[in-house]
Amino acid sequence: MRLLLIEDDEMIGETVLESMRRAGHAIDWARDGRAAALSLGNGVYDLVLLDLSLPKADGIDLLKTWRGAGGDAPVIILTARDAIEDRVRGLDAGADDYLVKPFDLDELAARTRALLRRRAGRTQLVFTHGTLKLDPAAHEVFKDGEPIALIPREFALLHALIEVPTRVFTRAELEEKLYGWGEEVGSNTIEVHVHSLRRKLGADQIVTVRGVGYRLKRIEA
């Protein structure tokens, strides 16, 4: 999943960025209203984390304008404004959730997962495919009932594949899901992660579709 963080506070921004990357999300960071408006116009984000007090724009106005232009990704407002009227204004402007600073990172991660499930039209909390099981909330993977230790990028790659196991994902699509702005992506990075997953899960679990990309193996009925 690709997220957009709109936040001008460097310390909060760095903390949220690192937390979301550890959770396996690709995340971009806009530090003022003008950069945020340009980023939102790309239409590539699955969820937006929005501060209200921004340089070069007001967060509420930014949200209203974006919603009016058809922006439909879920939005979680992250702000120090804790008055009831501020919450009402934010939700009425089009936000889906409202979290007051200082907030707990685990709670933010849980609210993010809930909104992403809702956006995808899913209620399931755990993905299964053959002998594989992936639990996004616990950040755990099992094969044949045994836990498999994955680094965050490996987990994010498997998460992308297992969500739609019949789809073939191109390398570019997987890079977009795993990496945000400014993160260095080597020419063979996805191949390295695929190789590592095959070593841990079994060589047959991820299929290479030559000239296209990767998908999980088909499960025989």
Automatic annotation (TrEMBL):
Main location: cytoplasm
DNA-binding region: 124-218
Transmembrane segments: none
Keyword Cytoplasm annotated: yes
OmpR/PhoB-type domain segment(s): 124-218
SMART domains tied to this protein: REC, Trans_reg_C
Keywords: Cytoplasm, DNA-binding, Phosphoprotein, Transcription, Transcription regulation, Two-component regulatory system
Residue ranges occupied by any Response regulatory domain in the UniProt entry: 2-116
Record-linked Pfam families: Response_reg, Trans_reg_C
SUPFAM superfamilies: CheY-like
Localization in the cell: Cytoplasm
Record flagged with keyword Cytoplasm: yes
GO molecular function, one term: transcription cis-regulatory region binding
GO cellular component labels: cytosol; protein-DNA complex
Residues with 4-aspartylphosphate modification: D51
CDD domains: REC_OmpR_PmrA-like, trans_reg_C
One GO term of the biological process aspect: regulation of DNA-templated transcription
Alphabetized InterPro entries for the sequence: CheY-like_superfamily, OmpR/PhoB-type_DNA-bd, Sig_transdc_resp-reg_receiver, WalR-like, WH-like_DNA-bd_sf
Source domain of life: Bacteria
Name the record gives this protein: Transcriptional regulatory protein QseB
